[in-house]
């Protein structure tokens, strides 16, 4: 059984149907990413899975006693409130100082423990949110656009951290992201949402799906092809092509794509 799943759910908000007949599941140890245009229902789907919005039809199931960690899309911290990062990590559940400090170190910002939340940079703030989610010792980590506001190195570092968490804890990770090429290289499965599930599968399957191309266009496909090129190579079967894998290159014509698939 999946850790968390939605089966044929419909969600209505403000009189409009935001999600129609959506099914999704997440298993332990996999990274699944939801992609979709603004307003396509991505955050709503996460919130429905978390039980924060009611479903009009269908059902959401969670494994019994499931521990969830959630990084919301937005979290407003009142600038006048002197809330340090360490104190923030103890809300709503209390955690000891050693535990909160270890969580901050885990996400790479041990130095912010005594600093006010309102004074943190965007990247530091996102990492503290992740630390808070990790303190739940989650079996499922749900992240809603976790790298917003981060620069490119910060974004890449954040995704590496997520991969490490998955590797070290075996947690399943479900996230919403617009960072297409990082997402495509880091996800096991991708779900393309536009009120309903347009297409889903491995990054390669989704990036080749007409529904995906209709939503994101061919420009994105170019970026995806590049990542597939890099990651689909099996270095034991290089056939003497002598590629320099540190410098991925992209063949614009699909017929020139050079994808080995020796799995
Ligand atoms: N509480 C609400 N009441 C009424 N409508 C809502 C509510 N919350 C969201 N919506 C609407 O539901 C739709 C989906 O919103 P949602 O935030 O899930 O989209 P999203 O795909 O996460 O968008 P974005 O990429 O912009 O974050 C939007 O049209 C939004 O205006």
UniProtKB/TrEMBL annotation:
Matches recorded under InterPro entries: AAA+_ATPase (IPR003593), ABC_transporter-like_ATP-bd (IPR003439), ABC_transporter-like_CS (IPR017871), Metal_Ion_Import_ABC (IPR050153), P-loop_NTPase (IPR027417)
ABC transporter domain: residues covered: 4-219
An annotated Gene Ontology molecular function: ATP hydrolysis activity
Keyword Ubl conjugation tagged: no
Pfam assignment, any one: ABC_tran
Segments of this protein annotated with the region Disordered: 233-263
Gene3D superfamilies per the UniProt record, alphabetical: P-loop containing nucleotide triphosphate hydrolases
Keywords, in A-Z order: ATP-binding, Cell membrane, Ion transport, Membrane, Nucleotide-binding, Translocase, Transport, Zinc, Zinc transport
Top-level taxon in the UniProt lineage: Bacteria
Regions annotated as coiled coil: none
SMART domains to which the protein is assigned, alphabetical: AAA (SM00382)
PANTHER family, per the entry: METAL TRANSPORT SYSTEM ATP-BINDING PROTEIN TM_0124-RELATED, ZINC IMPORT ATP-BINDING PROTEIN ZNUC
Protein name: Metal ABC transporter ATP-binding protein
Originating organism: Aliigemmobacter aestuarii
